[in-house]
From TrEMBL:
InterPro entries: TerB-like. It comes from the Bacteria. It comes from Flavobacterium arundinis. This is TerB family tellurite resistance protein.
Length: 143
């Protein structure tokens, strides 16, 4: 029995929404790089996205809404995934920041501090931190 079998369909829908948001970021430039494809493959397995669902989401990533998590730590974890996808090409520009800002707002970060959060997230990605360090640093960035 898989972990998702223990939860309702809402759990799977949230995973699909998260995955589709990341696919949207990945496809923003019109194609998937090898690095992006590998990341999506790994993430799909972690989120228990089937091959059929994977193909469906790649074909139409707008089908699933972004479902922001309620817990701040989960928002930061999702922000980490989205930041990694934005930074997958290792080139930061205004478009990448704009995309990540939109997703950060959709995840529930407030407009008053979203620019600071996005700047911090991208600076951590430039330093190639892991997920745990990312979450820790984001939680303690005002201290």
């Amino acid at each position: 029995m898989s972990i998702s079998d223990l939860f309702d369909s809402g759990f799977k829908d949230r995973n699909k929404g998260h995955f589709s948001a990341i696919v949207r970021v990945a496809m923003e430039n019109g194609h998937l790089s090898t690095e992006e494809r590998l990341f999506l493959d790994k993430l799909a397995k972690q989120l228990e996205i089937s091959q059929e669902e994977y193909a469906e989401i790649l074909a139409n990533p707008m089908r699933y809404p972004i479902n922001p998590p309620h817990l701040h730590v989960q928002r930061l974890e999702r922000l980490y995934d989205l930041s990694r996808m934005v930074y997958a090409d290792h080139i930061l520009g205004p478009k990448q920041k704009e995309i990540l800002t939109r997703f950060a707002l959709a995840l529930g970060f407030t407009p008053g501090n979203v620019n600071y959060i996005v700047d911090k997230a991208l600076s951590l990605l430039v330093m190639n931190v892991d997920a745990d360090t990312f979450v820790y640093e984001m939680q303690h960035m005002n201290k």
